[in-house]
Design a protein that fits this description.
Blueprint: E1 6-7, H1 8-20, H2 25-31, E2 45-46, H3 48-62, H4 78-86, H5 92-104, E3 111-117, E4 120-126, H6 136-153, E5 159-164, E6 183-185, E7 191-195, H7 207-213, H8 219-223, H9 231-239, H10 249-255, H11 260-269, H12 274-290, H13 297-303, H14 309-320, H15 324-331
Parallel strand pairs: 5-6
Antiparallel strand pairs: 1-2, 3-4, 4-7, 5-7
Helix pairs in contact: 1-3, 4-5, 13-14
Length: about 325
């Protein structure tokens, strides 16, 4: 679902490179309808469209696709030229190798490598040349390359594992939106592991489809949550957007071909619960609607299944630290 919202941490992290270069970030935030005060609330969240526009503005203002996190700039258009360089390759392996070779031509660019490990393939990003205290750029590169590769072959590449050289951050629960697969911190490298069979698959895209793809990428790749096959993603899809008609846990378990007890156990293992998933989905739908002026707050409360507007106000403040009215005022 595109309504899956993005934690304010990622907005703050995205701005760090621009701040380091003395850019007036409050003006950029206002341009995407994010009031700077919103970022003072750790629980605050923004809509994916806002985040995508923020990425585009940072690239434009800085004239740097690395957003100020690299030792050198990556001039606007570099990513697009890399895509044109690989689009005529016959297989994904050749395309990815050509892409890594393309970026290796730039001095002090982040080093991206593709290696085989038996039946597995690993895409590694070396962040040693980055000035990236929140690891925003290195994580962005992993997301962009994974989603680009999936687009090239016309199917989502299922990740076996994502590894990170650094310690697990406080916001690691948010990574389910980016890497809905096992994650390991404090590893020897920052990388993605997937089955090598994908590398032999033919490219299903061409210059015509690439032109359309580049109209919104890579910003859209970063703002869009992974439509992966994690249990949490599957449950969110089964719940859908109609809060008044949500199936109960037993019905969801039946659709997933498991017992309710097994479903509860799996959710506990992923650090979640069925109620928490419903709350997060309500939160994301609330933020989605509050960012638009066509519904009154009372109507939003009813759509989300709250019997009283006051209950919605209490819940929303618990989720984001702001009341619905205060959040809408910040947005506008």
């Amino acid at each position: 679902m595109r309504e899956r919202t993005i934690a304010s941490h990622f907005v703050r992290a995205a701005l760090r490179g621009a701040e380091r270069q003395g850019v007036d970030c409050s003006a950029i935030l206002r341009e995407v309808n994010i009031q700077p005060a919103l970022l003072d609330e750790p629980r605050a969240r923004v809509a994916p469209e806002q985040f995508a526009r923020l990425m585009q503005l940072l690239w434009e203002k800085l004239a740097d696709e690395y957003m100020g996190f690299g030792r050198t700039r990556s001039k606007p258009g570099t990513f697009a030229m890399m895509c044109y360089a690989l689009i005529h390759c016959h297989t994904l392996e050749k395309a990815l190798l050509r892409g890594t070779l393309f970026y290796s031509l730039f001095e002090e660019a982040p080093k991206i490598t593709l290696t085989r490990e038996g039946d597995w393939a690993r895409l590694t990003v070396d962040d040693s040349t980055m000035i990236d205290p929140d690891h925003f750029l290195v994580e962005s590169l992993l997301v962009i390359w994974h989603r680009l590769a999936s687009w090239l072959i016309g199917q989502r590449i299922r990740l076996q594992e994502a590894t990170f050289r650094y310690a697990e951050p406080a916001h690691s629960a948010e990574y389910d939106l980016l890497f809905p697969n096992p994650r390991r911190f404090g590893a020897g490298s920052t990388s993605l592991l997937f089955q090598a069979r994908y590398l032999a698959m033919p490219l299903l895209q061409d210059e015509r489809t690439l032109k359309h793809f580049l109209e919104h990428s890579p910003a859209d790749l970063l703002a869009r949550p992974d439509g992966g096959d994690s249990l949490i993603s599957q449950i969110r899809r089964l719940l859908g957007r109609d809060c008044a008609d949500w199936p109960d846990l037993e019905a969801v378990a039946q659709q997933l071909h498991m017992s309710p007890q097994t479903l509860r156990r799996h959710l506990r293992e992923e650090g979640s619960s069925f109620q928490e998933l419903k709350d997060h989905l309500r939160r994301d739908l609330a933020i989605y609607h509050l960012g638009r002026d066509n519904l009154a707050i009372q109507d939003i409360a009813e759509q989300l299944g709250f019997s009283e507007p006051s209950a919605f106000h209490r819940a929303f403040k618990k989720w984001t630290g702001l009341t619905p009215g205060a959040y809408r005022a910040q947005e506008n």
